[in-house]
Amino acid sequence: TTDFNLDLVELVEEAFERAGSEMRSGYDLRTARRSLNLLFADWANRGINMWTFDSGAINLVPGTATYNLPSDTVDLIEHVIRTGAGDAATQADLTITRISVSTYATIPNKLTQARPIQVWIDRQPQTPTITVWPVPDDSQAYQFVYWRLRRIDDAGNGVNTMDVPFRFLPCMVAGLAYYLAIKIPGAEARLPILKQQYDRSEEHTSELQSHHDLVCR
Predict the structure, then answer these.
(1) Which of 6, 4, 48 is nearest to 159 (CA)?
(2) Do 140 and 83 contact (CB within 8 A), yes or no?
(3) Based on the number of CB atoms within 10 Å of its own CB, is 116 exposed (0-12), middle (13-18) or buried (19 or more)?
């Protein structure tokens, strides 16, 4: 068979055992779940959760510069302006350049209307937004098409199986064991080897993911 996986309880039990302890109470499960969510946040910052890529499109409105992204967006990876959407004879994806807030701030006239050629991505904690420039005009219909990195589903949020592919299970268990050992009294002696195992597992998994991404490109 090829269906091996770990549910949340099995994952936590394995991590506790590696840290030299056992899961004995509901609090142990809660603290492990909290650590696992922090681990996922760290992965999002490192950008290694490439299985969470997905795409979307925003229909741009003439005269409107700012639009909301899905609230679980970590960052945008690629983006284009699409014209003539849905028609094989006219559809075209045109480059739009990402700029910083500093560059956007120096634009003399932020109300200029034309086909957008620049985008500023404001990564707010609740609802990230994009602001395009020039502001879309009404000469034709524009779509902002993007490929994004979304958040990993929260651990234990009504789902026992993590939003992680099987190849990341060793990295996830190693990371959780290291996080738990930091909190378990008397587990300090295990920290160096657990940290080494986690770093090695994360590095190996990232290399595989980067190789896959390179081959796909």
Answers:
(1) 6
(2) yes
(3) buried
